[in-house]
Every structure is written in C-alpha cells, then in structure tokens.
Specification:
It holds the Pfam family HTH_18. By secondary structure, this protein is α+β, with helices and mostly antiparallel strands. Helix content is about 55%, strand content about 10%.
Length: about 350
C-alpha cells in the first residue's frame, strides 16, 4: 500500500469502527461521526441529538453547521491535535484529525454537548456568531425543548474525551498500517520471486517497519515452537497452575519471574513455587530455562536467525547469559549446536 494509494478505507475497518464509535458515544454521552478529508461522512452518526439533527436539516441553518465543521477540521489539522470549539449555538464540538504520515485523511467529529462551566471557554473559538440574526433566534426558540435536552459536561470532561479519541485513533491507524504492510509484503512474496526493495516501504515510518520486523520474528518463532495445547505436559497441570503455563507459551519473548506467575495464578509466591515443583517435577526457574533452551534448539535447527536475535526473542536479557545456559543444558554453545545439526 504505497503512500499515494493511501486512503481511510484501506487503513481502518469502518464496519468495526462503527460499532466502537457507537459504544464510545453511548459511554461518553456525546455524538460522534467520522468524515473524510473532504468532510464527507464515512460512518453513520452515533447518537445525533434532536436539536442538532433538526438544525442540520434546516435549509438555511445547515450552512452555519457546515462552516463550523469545516473550520474545526482545518484547525485540528493545523494544530495536529484535537480542536475544541463552540458552534453558533454555543454547543461544544471537537474535531480530532486523522493524519497518516503527515497527510490529513479525515477527522472524528464529536460533541453536541453544553458546558457546565462556560467560564472556562475564554479563549475557545466561537466559529460563527448568529445571535443577532432573527432566523437563528427564531429556530432556537422553536427548538428550545430539544436544546435543553442536550447533555451537559464540564470542559475537563470534554477535553479528556477528545484526548481519548485522539489516542484511540492514533493506535488504530498505527496498527492498521502495520497489518497493511505485512499484507503488501505477503502479496509480493507470493506473486513473484522478486526481492523486496526499499521502495516497497515508502509511506511507512521506521516504527511501522520495526513493528513488522518484530511480528515476523514472532511468527517465525511460533512456527518453530509448539503451542501449549499441543504439549504433552498439559494433562498434568492443575487448573490453578494452568494460567501460568499458558502465559509462558503466549509470551515467549518475556523474561518472566515467579512473582508475576504467582500473581497470574492468584496465589502467594511461596505456594506457587511449591505447587509448581510438585506438579512439574522441577523448580520454576529450571523449568523455564529448559523450556526456552528447547525452543532455542528448534529455532537454531529451522532458521538462520543469529544467536543474539534468538536470545532476545526468547526472553534472555544478555546473549552471553543465553549462551551460558544453553551450554549448561546441551554441553555446547548455540553456534556449535547449529553447525553440528546442519552437518548431520
């Protein structure tokens, strides 16, 4: 997915986002909609309040709403952060920009709330003023009942919601870019014998590429190491200890402590150590070391990953310590083990 082909539909799964958007609206009490860079709606409105719905349906008043949306979105892009502002009816709205690799792709528009502390709005931009326009006042009076039904939040609450939406949006975009890069690489790998080139990574940050490198490493290790469900020892594990063993297999690159395992099993560390030794026939530290060395052997046999990389991927803090433990159990260093295995 090259940068010139980037669009929101390719980056974000909007069917899933719509459900999340609806849930966020329900929890926060604010209306939310997602638009593209032109301001066109990509999602349905989540919790659009009656007052705003009717004003936006008014042939003359809708232009003021559109002007507020446009200005709010542009300011959010300029600042590269959520922009909180007042509409022509002193209703608070928020524009959260969706920016991918420095390019404005759209925005999450949220709001339709009144503030409980309008004294905090000093410095907050009121994009359009219509207080002296007879039509605007007439519409407000006609819809006064619905205006009073708008939810009331403090400025701090609105700001917290805006920051939450921004963080969530950035996370979704980053994750989506990582997955799209994996898909691009996969499609190319099965489509031809051509090696990946630097141009294939244009439009992605170093962080994206680093994440992909990690994902690929994890995938290689998972392919070499058996899953817990396939391990023969699973039938000997009690329900109390099982969460710890599952955690070890699901977090192969973590340097796991007995203290953390005890917390996961909801028991004391001393009881965990006794129970583990009883059921597994060895201390936790010895069991974990032996297991990881077995994983290392599998990886050495099936891949060309360096010893340093294998050490990191299976959770050893230092390659030197990994080599020491490997030699303790196998009698030779990882490099010699690989060389011997390859030659036989």
């Amino acid at each position: 997915m090259k940068k010139d082909k980037l669009n929101l539909e390719k980056v974000i799964d909007f069917k899933k986002w719509q459900k999340l958007q609806d849930d966020l609206s329900l929890v926060t009490n604010i209306a939310i909609i997602t638009v593209d860079y032109k301001g066109n709606p990509i999602t349905k409105h989540s919790r659009c309040y009656k007052f705003c719905e009717l004003v936006r349906a008014h042939p003359q008043m809708v232009k003021y709403c559109q002007k507020c949306d446009s200005r709010g979105g542009l300011e959010a892009v300029r600042l590269n952060e959520p922009y909180i502002y007042l509409c022509h009816y002193n209703i608070v709205d928020v524009a959260v920009p969706i920016i991918i690799e420095g390019r404005y792709m759209g925005a999450i528009m949220a709001g339709q709330v009144k503030l409980s502390d309008y004294d905090t709005t000093e410095g907050m931009e009121k994009i359009v003023t219509t207080s002296h326009e007879p039509l605007a006042n007439k519409v407000l009076n006609e819809l006064r009942e619905y205006y009073e039904e708008l939810p009331i939040l403090s400025y701090k609450e609105v700001k917290n919601i805006a920051n939450m939406l921004s963080s969530l949006c950035n996370y979704l975009v980053e994750e989506a870019l990582d997955k799209n890069l994996i898909l691009e690489m996969y499609k190319k790998s099965i489509g031809s014998e051509t090696q990946l080139e630097s141009s294939d990574f244009k439009g992605y940050t170093a962080k994206n590429i680093q994440n992909i490198k990690k994902e690929i490493s994890n995938a290689i290790i998972d392919a070499c190491v058996p899953d817990f469900k396939d391990d023969e020892i699973k039938t000997n594990i009690s329900s109390t200890l099982k969460p710890a063993i599952e955690y070890i297999y699901q977090n192969k690159s973590e340097n796991i402590s007995a203290e953390k395992m005890a917390k996961i099993c909801h028991i004391s560390q001393s009881y965990f150590s006794r129970l583990f030794a009883k059921e597994m026939g060895d201390s936790f530290s010895n069991y974990l070391s032996r297991l990881k060395i077995q994983w290392a052997k599998n990886i050495l046999e099936e891949t060309d990953m360096s010893v340093n990389q294998i050490s990191e991927e299976i959770g050893f803090n230092e390659p030197g310590y990994f080599i020491k433990i490997f030699k303790k159990y196998e009698g030779v260093t990882p490099s010699i083990y690989r060389k011997y295995y390859k030659n036989n």
